[in-house]
Amino acid sequence: MKVGRVTLSDRGGGGACMETGAGRRFEAIFKSHFSEALEFDRRLIPDERGEIERTLRELCDTQCTLIVTTGGTGPASARCDAGSHGAVIGKGVAAFLAR
Description:
This protein has helices at about 10-15, 20-35, 50-60, 80-90, 95; strands at about 1-10, 40-45, 65-70. The chain is α/β, with parallel strands linked by helices. The chain has one domain (about 1-95): Molybdenum Cofactor Biosythetic Enzyme, Chain A. Strands 2-1-3 form a three-stranded parallel sheet, sandwiched between helices. The radius of gyration is 13 Å and the shape is globular. The model is unreliable at about 95-99 (pLDDT under 50).
């Protein structure tokens, strides 16, 4: 299964630092829960709405079965993460959190 893993980081996306361990920890968790082989398409991008939307769409176009994001500021209304995801998914993040 192809999994898109996006880490949002203003510093990391700009090349100022390496990715933290959160993305690698997600991969380890997924590998322990899925019996099939996983292929990860890893992206480290700035926490900017346009970049997030573009990256999520690219991963959809490359047939990722699952796309996971980590980093950024989370679904806070003052930041771009929730709006960026909603613009691509077609639903607001609150629709997923409410379930």
